[in-house]
Give the backbone structure.
Amino acid sequence: MSEQIVIEAEIGHFEFGDSDAPEAARAVPAALPVQVLPNSGTYAHRRHQLGRHGHLNLATTGHSSAEQSPEGQTSILHFPFLQLDEELRLDVDGRYPQMKASGRVSRFGLSPAHWVADLTRVAPNRYSGAIVYKEGNLTLIPHTLVDIHVLRSTFAPLALSVKFSSPGAVPRNVICRYESRYFHSVNFEFDYAAGTTPITSFDTSSHPNRPATLISEELSIERVFRRAGFDVSRSPGGPVPVSGTGVDGLWSDMEMHDAMQTNWSRFANKSQWAMWVFFASLHEMGTGLGGIMFDSIGTEQRQGTALFLDSFIKYAPTGDPAAAAWVNRMAFWTACHEMGHAFNLAHSWQKTLGASWIPLADEPLARSFMNYPYGVPGGQSAFFSDFEFRFSDQELTFMRHAPAKFVQMGNAAWFDDHGFEGAAVSPEPRLELELSTSRATRAFDFLEPLVLGLTLRNASDQPLLVDKNVLSSEHLTVIIKRRGGNARQFLPYAQRCFRAETLALLPRQELTESLFISAGRNGWDLAEPGVYMVQIALHLETEDVVSKPLEVRVAPPRAYEDELLAQDFFEDDVGRVLTFDGTRLLASANDVLDRVVSELPQSRAAIHARVALANPLTKRYKRLETEGKQVTSLAPELARAKELLAPLTAKANVARETLHPLDYAYYMDRFADVLK
Amino acid sequence: MPTLKIDFQEGFRGQLGIVRLDGKESFRKELSTRTQIGLAHSQTLEVSVGRHELEIEIEVGSGNGPQVARTTLEVSDVTYVGVSLDAAGKPVLRLNEGPFGYL
């Protein structure tokens, strides 16, 4: 029997009469040698599946697919660029069902939104539940509930209909075609240092200490990840010359990174669902390091992982009844563990560290690939007696349903190397969006925060109604791409909600706004020296407007002091303080800004720092004390504020240019009383 | 000569760690845990055979006082000590019979 057939049977994993099996499957006579696929998997509704008038020809199902009105009538979509692309991952049966659905919704092929819903089975092949997570362009997913109905033949799903709804909102219905029983595809390449034998499978019956219910099989790494929901392919691996280690024969992270670039057939400076797994003898840290996801160098991380077969993992406990099997199991476990890190999984006891995509709980007792076997009560013996060679439920939820950018190796932003080139813009746009800088050279100093000008112009010969705040960031998708790097989506620190206030934009009339884009929730996207392309899409109710790309340049540091200061300046807190024009709470950020003012007094960055330091001093400042939950009030410090703001008038031209004329005018008005 | 191997493990995010052995400072370093292996730094100290007082001080900054953990060790060969920070930032010491392993 081929591997493929074995996998299909195992992923379907239905015994007839199994309560988890689809209803249709349970109706099939048990004697028939058939495969029955579960409802779980990936479904999609893609624009390219649509014909000229928005109809999808599902020849195999007889269903048409397109967005439907609440009455169930299919819309005739004359404007394909208005349609949504939908991907939906249904996770309700099969291996380790998480009772979730997740989706990715995009329009124009840019600025997607991501949602996750908790599901309950409410009827045969029907599931409903609340959307519990949203991320990205939230205007695309205003609803809070989903109701999913799977349409299937006896043996396999064909499509599903999903109804998005929420109280008081117009529901939206979509039909998605079944695409795969998996949630994502991924490719593995197993390379090895010459003289080392990679271990990529394990006979689960070879060691007596195991769960009584554990299936006896030759379990491969690929199968572990297929069971986690991935359509795994494998590139041919091969030996890596030991000369890559230098004279000591021990591998450093840098040497492995170099080896990855040289030897991995799929290496590329971009995010991709692909991973390099390297088997070697020892890391330079010695026998104490059994494996490491070493790829934390550069911008595309988590692509390479390694394990060291001559480290402590090759020593079975004294007296172990099957020492050789123990060693093989430990090597196999370590490989899956390190590969889990490349999927961005933390150790089981570290789940609450950092910023997780959803609130997570530490799982110090978990029998998961991500827990240390010798770290649980009872040690490795207790761990393996209850270990089913799987990831935990919350790890599976992450791998299957988190936005791909969090999971995919390389962790690059969406639309790499494409920008907005794939956008289907209106052939006769009525509005134009133009980006500008405050200087003809479009060159910015190192450390200088970058403020763009946005101009929205009525290019038609008729007045147009637009929202007064149409250029606020929640309507925008901003893509920043450094030359030679990946495109990243700028995510502002705050989304504001304005009351709609319509105004008429006359022909050739313009709306203007400024946008601080150096730092956001993605970090400092525009900081390192280099040339960047910035492009923005404005999402309106009936159409999208895409700007032309704007090229800007960030100059290299002028002195060592600039580089030294940059280590502290390009921190999240400093980005937030600059964005929100100051704080009296984040002392460390203010310390950095003080240093910019004192150490680089002539720099343009110092002008931004002065504004951020002065602004909270100009008025009484309210501060919420987390302990005691009281609001305290700090008195203004007008003399200090005036001193800080002096360059706004003394160096007016420079200040206007670096702050951007729009913002400069705003500050001069805001600080008028202080500057008198 | 016997050695004391101190592994700074989980929870470090740039804090300054200071090691004092029998009251004398023998090591200080800013520490950050590499979360993918759960290790910030491994420091080996040569010590004499016998009883020693080990003190680990963690400077947390921001106006808060240092956090300190102390233990008495009977050293005859290689002694392995793991130091992690708990949720409150207090160092927690763990003795191990053999070397720690990281994955």
Observations:
- The interface with chain A takes residues 10, 34-38, 42, 62, 99-103 of chain B (CB under 8 Å).
- The two ends of chain B are 29 Å apart (CA to CA).
